[in-house]
Amino acid sequence: MTPKLHAAEWQTANGRDLAARLSRIRALLQRALGRDSEPVPELPITETPSACAVLTALFGLSPFETDVLMLCAGAEMDSAIAALCAEVNGELRPGSPTFGVALTVLPDAHWSALSPDAPLRRWNLISPDAGGMLTRTPLRIDERILHFLAGVSSTDTRLAGIITPVVETNDFVEPEYGGEGAMVRVVPLLASPAPPVIALFGADRHTLWAAACAIAAQCEKVLFTARASDLPTDPRDRHSLARAWQRETLLSNAVLLVETDGDPRALAAFSAFAAEGNFPVLLASEQPVSVPASRHVVRFPLEYPTSEDRHAAWREALGARGASLNGYVPVLAAQFGLSPTLIRAAVEDAFAGLAENAPGGELKRRLWDSCRRQARPSLDDLALRIETRHTWDDLVLPDQQMAMLHDIIAHVTHRRKVFDVWGFGANTRGTGTAVIFAGGSGTGKTLAAEIIANTLRLDLYRVDLSGVVSKYIGETEKNLRRIFTAAEYGGAILLFDEADALFGKRSEVRDSHDRYANIEVSYLLQQMESYRGLAILTTNMLDNFDRAFLRRVRFVVQFPFPTAEQRAAIWERVFPPEAPTDGLDLWKLARLNITGGSIRNIALNSAFLAADAGEPINMAHLLRAAAGEFSKLEMPLPDAEIWDWVSDKA
Fold it and tell me: What is residue 594's predicted lDDT score, i.e. its pLDDT?
């Protein structure tokens, strides 16, 4: 409950009220001991409720229960009160008051005040020490309540690590992106005596937070947050946490935002937690989730910021500085699906340390790279980001395949122009660029993906499908949905490596598991097709793909086994200019019938052998490295291909 006075004025008034209440407790103790030197003072009447008055109203305390609370607080705050309590109790050393002291000293005493269901113990305002007679057991005030009486801001230690306050809420308030529409409907529900669970879904995390923060601000509540996966599953721990949180909602006038990724076990824990009380709670998820029955659930779908929304957010964030960008804002808005919060962060990051007279091209470069950085956290936990340093000079492929790779870049670069400006998007089912790279291991599929990413200046993330595919029905789709949703922030390039882990399961439908495996494949291709960015599947077994699926893919690039001429070109490029070499014969090396990946492994291993010997890289080092590579592949090193690499192979 927020005081109406200025904070400093309220602190002063609360201090006077607290001092008066403690003085009254001292006087009551003195009178019980037969000492009437200090008359029992009347409590002052104030216009703004003190902390003690707020507690009395929040928890429905009787006058005697309020006095018990102040008696326990006084023993902590005033050594004289602690000493007087000991005297009344017949003890020599100062200590905590007992319920017997309270019954003896305080007016309007009633035994029911210390019942477990009465407010003092039900809300854990005070607690008796375990064991012993109830009237002789020391009573202790809860630390959070003690700080509250003193006007000190704090949070219940039982919530630490699970439920935390959201700092600087105003940075997230963006009602134009879902918050305002939700506020109009949600605020009355949260204010009801038995509020339902409000489930917000259908948008990225930042938009969900924006809506939650807007709702909290409109309700004039403090927003706290937790993750469903952090809620305790043990019933006792869960009950204790829920009771502590229910009390905190009253003390802090708080509302809780619980984030979930849809895990059924975490949702079950959340449902049980929410059933413990009637506190206001928001449940946020990027996709609709099924909440086990406990409390009534009201669902509010939110929407991702549209392209027009992002344009407006960019213009607002850039202000007058956007004039030098010459139409670059639509490019940024089309490529990066950032929320307004992240757009502001990207602009601040790009302009940090930028000279006022910096050319427009430098600003564009910084904005682009800043957008990439802002988008990364959403995907870093779900896939492996690959640093892309390779260029076209590192790749050796036939002309047809090289041309197709350049065509892929053209599709990504001009996606907005063709689909949005020229109108092709209206009659196209999928506007994403989905491609398949097919070929044996080491033929350059991943290298080509790196070069494309480097050319487009986009992040490349490798997704291990063997880790995404789950034996549990529905889990594979959920995992894929999370990846594609996170990737929408930055239009990152997704590389689904070793796609055979999924497509290798395709077969004729013999049972429900076969049928579901086919559904998973269809779902992946559907997501690739609708994804705004570039999604690449690599496979060694293109024959496993149904022709109907291939029609939904924009490009299929075959990576052939390199010819002798191509192997010679790879050998020529594999050694950096700085690397010392001696007497290397590229055509002899090219006779070795291996892929580019193996060539790079042999070259690298030979460099270490040469460095250890203190010599330039020569054919002997390459021969030894080749033997190691073939041994790793469990293949014999063909003597017909390496017989003349060195004069003495012994």
Answer: 94
